[in-house]
Specification:
Distance between the termini: 60 Å
Strand order of the largest sheet: 11-10-16-7-8-15-12-13
CATH topology of the largest domain: Rossmann fold
CATH architecture of the largest domain: 3-Layer(aba) Sandwich
Shape: elongated
Strand content: 25-35%
CATH class of the largest domain: Alpha Beta
CATH superfamily of the largest domain: P-loop containing nucleotide triphosphate hydrolases
Number of helices: 14
Structural class: alpha+beta
Length: 598
């Protein structure tokens, strides 16, 4: 037990977490030079391209210290985005210490603080490390001051390293062994194992990543999951060492995997507790929360005859992502589809890209929305995330929407632009602080619906890539919400409807009408595109018809002949408009989601 150390690496996005993990793995000789590749713990192409960890991984590193003592260092990697903060908290609950990485050129940022507070809540040993000291722009002294002033950590404890160059790696190993405590010995207690992650194997089913806090689990044992009361028989236990390495058992303090013939990933809940069916623990480990969807969007196949294929694709995808929720829905314009729930914006974006890349599935997504609360005059309370179920306005007493506490960190020269952006998104109660000279942290309350659309991209544009954004959902607040409908030739297109604040409805109505005008092809008759709230039209664009020159055959004569032909054409156009259907191309639905015209 004294030789085991369980630790995580936490950092802001792009501060070098995955690169440091690579160097630690290389230094212990876990992989040969031929097998090694950058970001070795990131298995998805998407993770490597974007430089973020989406699905956390675990690895047991064998290490011999300067005194010749052997150790097993369990590195529990964590996802690097606010959407997956619950998964990060469960990973930290499995550790005794963390390596806190700070970029020498960028300093302390929003997520550095958030992750440190989370580590402190779990009472973990913190080893601060300044990374990227090889960069020309590295300002080590200033970064040390930030760590001392903002994080309250002692500068004498700070380690310096360059994960890219491999300098300072030995010092980090020695600090892990010296400063992070070994786990407590509780092997005789009833089994308690914390599930901090899981992944799906097409041959073995769900593979559970867990930290054994008390007791021992051995192949052949019957285990019970606390949240579902489901009982499974353990087929295999083992450690993660790039590849799975089976062991005789897992006992208190160890981190590894359990294979127990669990068919679906959805049956395994992150944060749940495993115990033995024959000798159960009296209560589960604290901190379990079911995954809660925050952002919702409907998806439809690009072609209606591909609905069955999309359904099968979602069933396969769900095996690898237990956080996704979906149910059937339908649209008059787009046919059969699914209403999906996501943990946040990044989760939605990754879902869309993985469907296209890994499953070759082209889809149309509706405008993302959040869960709104409605209180009706008869006292009934409704929670709605789909504009189709918006209640009759005459029955609504009050409406509320979720608010977030947004934390933005950026150079002070962009203060005016960022504040203008936040206020345009209905931000309120701004608080500013100056963590270091030249950098501002802005805390502001904002409706979640305003942040899910294109807020992060716009912030990056305004700050030339230097701005960072993190958020926490705080509460539901009363708002004046309306349903914006889009009418094409006086017919409502339900796939384009959205629930929106009344003050932003006109702006969105104009934007959508203009986009659709550019995307819908001209017909033989005039097409009116209108934005409406109930019976009130708030925006309009008109697509002019193709016009045949019926007077071309005339060469002089009385003007009444010309008027007679134009009158006849007008009647024909009117009749055509009544019976003719407007063809809305699939690109029109996609265009509505784009930030700017391309």
């Amino acid at each position: 037990m004294a030789s085991i150390r369980n630790f995580s690496i936490i950092a802001h996005i792009d501060h070098g977490k995955s690169t440091l993990a690579d160097r630690l793995i290389q230094a212990t000789g876990m992989v040969s030079v031929r097998e090694f590749r950058d970001q070795i713990l990131d298995f998805m192409d998407l993770e490597r391209e974007r430089g973020i960890t989406i699905k956390s991984q675990t690895i047991t590193l064998p290490y011999t210290d300067k005194s010749g003592n052997s150790h097993f260092l369990n590195l529990i990697d964590t996802p690097g985005h606010a959407d997956f903060s619950y998964e990060v908290s469960r990973a930290l609950a499995s550790c005794e210490g963390v390596l806190l990485i700070v970029d020498a050129s960028q300093g302390v940022q929003a997520q550095t603080l958030a992750n440190l507070y989370m580590a402190m809540e779990h009472d973990l040993a913190v080893i601060p490390i300044i990374n990227k000291i090889d960069l020309i722009t590295a300002d080590i002294e200033s970064t040390k001051e930030q760590i001392e002033n903002e994080l309250g950590l002692d500068t004498e404890d700070i380690l310096l390293c360059s994960a890219k160059e491999g300098t300072g790696i030995e010092d980090i190993f020695e600090a892990i062994v010296a400063r992070i405590p070994s786990p407590e010995k509780k092997t005789e207690e009833p089994l308690k194992a914390l599930i901090f992650d899981a992944h799906y194997d097409s041959f073995r089913g769900a593979i559970v990543h867990c930290r054994i806090t008390e007791g021992t689990v051995t192949p052949g044992d019957s285990i019970r999951l606390f949240s579902t009361e489901a009982v499974h028989k353990v087929e295999e236990t083992g450690l993660f060492q790039i590849h799975r390495k089976p062991t005789e058992n897992l006992s208190a303090g160890e981190v590894g995997y359990i294979i127990a013939g669990i068919k679906k990933l959805g049956d395994v809940r992150i944060g749940d507790t495993i115990t033995l069916d024959s000798r159960p623990a009296d209560k589960p480990l604290a901190g379990f929360k079911p995954a809660k969807s925050v952002v919702f969007s409907s998806i439809y196949p690009m072609f209606t005859d591909e609905y069955q294929m999309l359904r099968e694709t979602l069933e396969k995808y769900e095996l690898n992502d237990a956080s996704l929720t979906y149910q059937k829905c339908s649209s008059a314009a787009l046919g059969q589809g699914f209403r999906c729930g996501f943990l946040g914006l990044l989760h939605l974006e990754i879902f869309q890209q993985r469907l296209e890349r890994e499953y070759d599935q082209a889809i149309i997504m509706t405008v993302p929305s959040v869960q709104y609360e409605f209180v009706l005059k008869d006292g009934e309370q409704l929670t709605i995330d789909n504009p189709q179920y918006y209640p009759d306005p005459s029955h609504i007493q009050k409406t509320a929407e979720p608010y977030i506490k947004a934390s933005l960190l950026f150079p002070d020269r962009y203060m005016g632009a960022v504040m203008k952006l936040c206020l345009s998104r209905r931000g309120s109660n701004p608080r500013t602080s100056y963590p270091t000279p030249g950098r501002i942290e802005l805390i502001i309350d904002m409706p979640l619906a305003e942040a899910i659309y294109d807020f992060y991209d716009t912030l990056k544009t305004f700050t030339q890539g230097y701005g960072s954004f993190d958020y926490d959902i705080i509460e539901n607040r009363e708002s004046d919400l309306v349903r914006l409908d889009i009418l094409i030739n006086a017919e409502k297109v339900d796939a384009l409807s959205m629930i929106i604040h009344r003050d932003r409805a006109r702006e969105w109505g104009v934007r959508i009408c203009d986009r659709l005008k550019d995307e819908i092809p001209r017909h033989q008759f005039k097409i009116a595109i209108q934005g409406a709230i109930g019976g009130q039209i708030i925006s309009r664009s008109t697509i002019s018809p193709y016009r045949k020159d019926v007077t071309a055959k005339l060469y002089g004569g009385d003007v009444t002949r010309k008027q007679k032909l134009l009158k006849k054409q007008k009647k024909g156009k009117k009749r055509m408009k009544m019976v003719g259907a407007v063809m809305i191309p699939q690109s029109a639905f996609v265009a509505v989601l784009k930030t700017e015209k391309e």
